[in-house]
Design goal:
3 helices; Rossmann fold; 69 residues; alpha/beta
Length: 69
């Protein structure tokens, strides 16, 4: 199945989303900061990235734009 990176600064939401994706057979990497998530995206090359719009250290939309470059 797919490799998924989830970035959300709320631990409970991150855990719930990770469990749901894993239950569907996906490999999940979860991060609570945009910096950690961005590093993982660059090294792990996931098929899907799920990002909270408001992460403590960065804006989620800005992070998505950085990934696209």
């Amino acid at each position: 199945m797919a490799k998924i990176v989830i970035i959300d600064d709320e631990a409970a939401i991150l855990e719930l989303m990770s469990k749901l994706c894993r239950a569907s057979g996906h490999s999940v990497l979860g991060f609570q900061t945009g910096a950690e998530g961005l590093q993982a995206i660059r090294t792990e090359k996931p098929e899907l990235v799920i990002v909270d719009l408001r992460i403590g250290d960065v804006n989620g939309l800005d992070l998505v734009q950085t990934c696209r470059q």
